[in-house]
Design a protein that fits this description.
Layout: E1 5-8, H1 24-37, E2 41-45, H2 51-61, E3 69-75, H3 87-94, E4 99-104, H4 108-115, H5 119-135, E5 139-144, H6 147-153, H7 155-167, E6 172-177, H8 184-195, E7 201-205, H9 212-221, E8 226-229, H10 243-252, H11 261-264, H12 267-277, E9 295-296, H13 299-307, E10 325-326, H14 334-343, H15 350-362, H16 371-382, E11 390-400, E12 406-416, E13 419-427, H17 430-442, E14 453-461, E15 472-479, E16 484-491, H18 494-509
Parallel strand pairs: 1-2, 1-8, 2-3, 3-4, 4-5, 5-6, 6-7, 7-8, 9-10
Antiparallel strand pairs: 11-12, 12-13, 14-15, 15-16
Helix pairs in contact: 1-2, 1-12, 5-7, 6-7, 8-9, 14-15, 16-18, 17-18
Amino acid sequence: MTTIQLYDATLRDGMQGEGMSLTADEKVRVVHKLDELGVDLVEAGFPSSNPKEAELFDLLARERFAHVDIAAFGMTRRRGVTADADEGLAVLAASFAPVCTIVGKTWALHLEKVVRVSAEENLAMIGESVAFLVAQGKRVVYDAEHFFDAYRADRDYALRCVAAAQGAGAETVVLCDTNGSSLPSQIATAAADVARVVERFGIHCHDDLECGVANTLAAVEQGAVQVQGTMNGIGERTGNANLISIIGNLQTKMGHAVLSAEQLGRLTETAHFVDELLNRVPDPQQPYVGRVAFAHKGGMHVAGVRADASTFEHMEPEAVGNERSLLVSELAGRATAAEKADALGLEVDAARVIDRVKELEHRGYQFEAADGSFELLLRKEAGVYEPLFRLESWRCIVEQRADGKVETEATIKIWVDGERYVRTAEGNGPVNALDRALRDALTEIHPHLRDLELVNFKVRILDETKGTGAVTRVLLDTSDGHDVWGSIGVNENVIAASWEALVDSLERAMQPARVRS
């Protein structure tokens, strides 16, 4: 099928999302990751919009990439100024970037309310700007802003705008659903019309109706040969079309070989890499790459997947670098417990394990997100569990002073190998103080425990009708730098629940290496 060009706008459009920020060095790392993935074009931003962008373009000019081309972003010339005298176009022309993406107006509403030019002057701004950059040796991508709103308001004029860009030498004319206001059927109708006017067009969608990916695919079906999006769909308002999902759909469902099999296998890694740089927790339910995108909980589903994965999965997760997981819960069957135990090299009575899980989940535990605690449960059932220590007592003191400052102190008393350890530590809260005191004692014997990091802490009230007296569930995620595991605690006292989860997290770190992951 026709080769589809992948165009990533994470570094420019994606950064317009709330809370999205990367340093210039981090942006360079993202470009290298996208290059490894096989993305064709990366929109780096405005070359001189601010000092950070200027620094980024200086850094990128010195980098070497195996595949990706850098696109500098800008706008058509200003009204009343010739293209060769426009400062913005001059910056684009002087940039090292081989590709220049310029955005121009298409919708009469914007001509009247924003740029305040006539329809004919706008056509001249489009054509002259494209022609100037082409004459400077640039490949030009023209973004027709608000194209679909414009098409619905005045079809003929919208088509004249894209025709003007192509006539002036634009390599690709991109139809932008800037407000994210269109449905797939509307995108398809307009795109089919454009296909009769221009030779090469692309699609750029926002996700305000949660149709960004569907709209992109609808345009591809009508002949679009460039797809624009951002990693994990980040962007202004509700975000942009998710390029991760677009790639997965193009490659595995529509027959477009946009990546090699090896590159497709990096899809999950790339998606998570960008989220981690942005200090975002990856969406566990994100299609293709989410942690639970190929997770199975119900006993019938698990049995079906074990017999033939295609019964409850649309593809092999390994193809996109993800993995199948079987979630343990009261809905799980004995086969799930047996498989988990087998992966650890343990022999257990699977039926008894599931009965124990059902009993605990009735009390508020939830093991599907607490794989570390479940591993300990399996080891107890297999008779190979050894506690890390014997608890004598723990105590927390939280004090608020008259000046408003809050201080927390924790004392733990434990026994390890017949020796008593008493430790006191301060922290920025009870859990932090307990963690510090406990690890202060244990790291004398197990020094590697000091390298563990608590990366997530969640508290949930299980019966909100009881208010502050309700049972609470605490979930902790812990990392040793390579692996991440969850642990759980349940108690009417939130500190006691936290202590239980904390102990499980450390005990899981002490267990023998698993036979296979």
